[in-house]
Automatic annotation (TrEMBL):
Record-given protein name: Uncharacterized protein
Family to which this protein belongs: Belongs to the glycosyl hydrolase 1 family.
Organism (species): Zingiber officinale
Molecular function terms, GO-annotated: beta-D-fucosidase activity; beta-galactosidase activity; beta-glucosidase activity
GO biological process: carbohydrate metabolic process
Amino acid sequence: MSSHMYQVIKAIRKIDSKVLPIYYGNIEDGGNGDIADDHYHRFMEDINLMQELGVNSYRFSISWSRVLPSEFSGSIGIQPFVTINHFDIPQELEDRYGSWLSTHIQEDFGYFAEVCFREFGDRVKLWSTLNEPNLFARFAYRDGTFPPGRCSEPCGNCHTGDSKTEPYRAVHNMILSHAVAVDIYRKKYQVKQGGSIGIVVTSKWYEPLTNSTDDCLAAERALSFELLWILDPILLGAYPQPMVEILGSRLPSFTSEEKKLLQSKLDFIGINHYASNYVEDCMFSSCDLDGYDFDALLLKTGYRNGMLIGDPTAMPTFYVVPRGIENLVLYIMERYKNIPMYITENGYAQESKGTYEELLNDTQRIKFMSSYLKFLHSAMRFMVSSMHGKGADVRGYFCWSLLDNFEWAHGYTVKFGLYHVDFQMLRRTAKLSVNWYKKFLSSEKLQTKTKTLGFEV
């Protein structure tokens, strides 16, 4: 199972306001995560739910703005998978030097990561440095919908910011901050603690709208500006060529010393995947501004000849396309020589409208999970080429999410949880998908073939 501190934890105001992560405004239902699921006070209740469900791993984040300890015991049989930074930054660092826009953050992030390794490394064997830096940079520094809310026209109307350069500056510092943390872990903690370290990126799968060469190249550009933007520098030492050619001087470059630092690489990649889209070229053709990516010069759409690529969900553009997870995993396998992977987030966006009984009868989530897991299994069995001679090295799968929670700009209007949460009384109630997933996890075939299957919070 998977989660994130601010989306589930409550107790957000129990600390000095100078170190608060700020997540107010631009929320669809006017809500915030100050209370959320109250995981802060109810974490043992939620761990018991996971234990009853039969998961063997739990992915969560440690809040940089307060370094919250989490008590885990090996006796409960659930392995912690810890994200060092999942979007939240101490306000002090934003005020002092602009957080991710400054090279100063690399040293501070390394210091924070080392605190985590030193204090929790005896219990944590799976670390990810950052969660979805590609998504966070776009929302925070291109669109201005995430803190610190920086952007410029035509992407948004913010008080300050530059959408043409700041997302790339921020990601550059995120990549180097990741490298600093990995270097510290490799040199000082990994041998003694016996853990692994990676990074988590998010990516849709993209298919060309037509069979034209232009649309096929546009689909590759879409992956370059989303997935490869993060992974190519870390694993191949340079930004993807389409980004270099299009962005020019707007894309920062790595010094020789920074390239050496990046050579620490990764033990695994975490993949957050929910949906797939079609892509239409806009480099040589005119495009509708709705869905247009002005940097990648392409348009993302769910429609081809008036037909949707997959069933719609409560999240715009999150179409259900199970083949997408197989195609994405095989693409990563080929490009990065079958590096170990975890599916660190995958889940179904359920509408919040409907009766209580209808919300609990989440048959569409069961259909979603069943089909995506089937295609993931296909990727793991795929006999791809003489280079590998075996399928993708997928080590685990984390469902998003254990509980209905605060879904950022969508507030509480979208429900991803296997457990329904009454946000007034904070009561947890199992949905129909709980029984399905419990049976899936306890199946004899799965027990003999799967290493880690869990939930993210």
